[in-house]
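Hmm, how's this folded?
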Amino acid sequence: MYAVEAYDASDAPDERRPRPLGQYANAAAALAAAREVIEENLSLSLTAGMSAEEAYEEWRQNGEVPTIVARGGAAPLQFDPFAFARTRAQELHRRA
């Protein structure tokens, strides 16, 4: 079992409170949910006419940052939301 949580990037590190987004039975579903959170944030910025780098920076400073927590003996998952967001911003910008 995996839980996906998100915190607001604009909160100071000591004030961050993870907000639960959902529980998933497998790693693939948890990864898809975490990636969707980032894509939604980036898409809003890109729709507003920002460059890929501007959209990434907007998300990094003000967006929802998802994390994946393994529960109930599930294997830990490696997911870097910042690396994914930087790459995905470029991909989405090319499509726009």
In short: The chain has a mean pLDDT of 94. The chain has one domain: 2-95. The CA atoms of residues 7 and 18 lie 5 Å apart.
